[in-house]
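Feature request, filed as a ticket because there's no other form

It would be nice if the structure record came with a short human-readable summary line next to the tokens. Right now we just get the raw output. Example of a typical job, pasted below so the devs can see what we mean:
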Amino acid sequence: MGNLWQDTASWRVVATLSEATGRDIGALLLHAGAEELKVTSNAQLATFTLSLVILDAAAAALSAPGLAAGGLVVVPAAVAGHSLGEYTALVAAGVLSPVAGAQLVAARGSAMADAATASPGTMAAVLGLDPDGVAAACAGVDGAWVANDNAPGQIVIAGTSEGVTLASGRARDLGAKRVVALAVGGAFHTPLMASAQGALDAALAGAVFSDAAVACVANVDAAAHTSAGEWRELLSAQLTSPVRWRQSLGRLSELGVTTFVELGPGTEMSGMVKRTVGGARRANVATPEDLTGLTDLTDLGGLSGLTDLAGLTGAE
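Raw output as currently delivered:
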């Protein structure tokens, strides 16, 4: 994940967050294999850190205050992040410092990895079935829940292996075009993560939150929030609650956002924007070369920074 960025000035973010968390994040970004990154404690910290590297690079490209200056990385109209990406979005909005965000992500990842070991589970993307149909496929199935409402025709279910298998079959019977198993380390955003709640809440209780400089649309309620005092509860609830991403994109559109910028590896979030918000302009910054396209955007007053995880893969 990090190979393309290691020779940029923004790579210094990796050293800062490695020191703050006591982890060699550079090794995760440059040398870790798929099995190592499937462990959610590794995947979360690696993804969060690389997203902040890209945020810092975007700041330099737009001549905006970077992470080192303690300023907003981009100056958008609003921000949002999918699942883990919500923590990156809060850094972009000035709610969390990069170090505080990394320490929370490290605690969250460790707690969720333990929960995944205690209560193993998996996830699957249901394609081509509406929300009511997916909910019906999970209804009455022991160990299956809706985990991510990503975009029209793309909803992720999660739970025990047996529960997801049964719900997947029911989804096909109800008209789903495809059900795609996801390579993840657990059943995220379901009650199977409940044993991680105590450790996450303890970390949230010790973190410093600030009022947001711009609105941040939250996963759990798809509403825009700016008050520092709201985020402990929102992030706590996010652990076992579905990610309402389709509704969040709709909220950003209602707020007047017309241009969406995805900051981080992959293009999954932008694909969801295309399916959800008609006529929206989209841009991605996944590689240093993509920064040129970012500087071509002139109407920054309508810019929305989407800082994200690996959307369709559901990876944590």
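Something like this underneath would help us a lot:
Residues 9-117+193-313 form a domain with the Malonyl-Coenzyme A Acyl Carrier Protein; domain 2 fold (CATH 3.40.366.10).
Strands lie at 78-80, 122-127, 144-151, 154-159, 178-182, 215-217, 224-225, 259-263, 281-285, 303-307.
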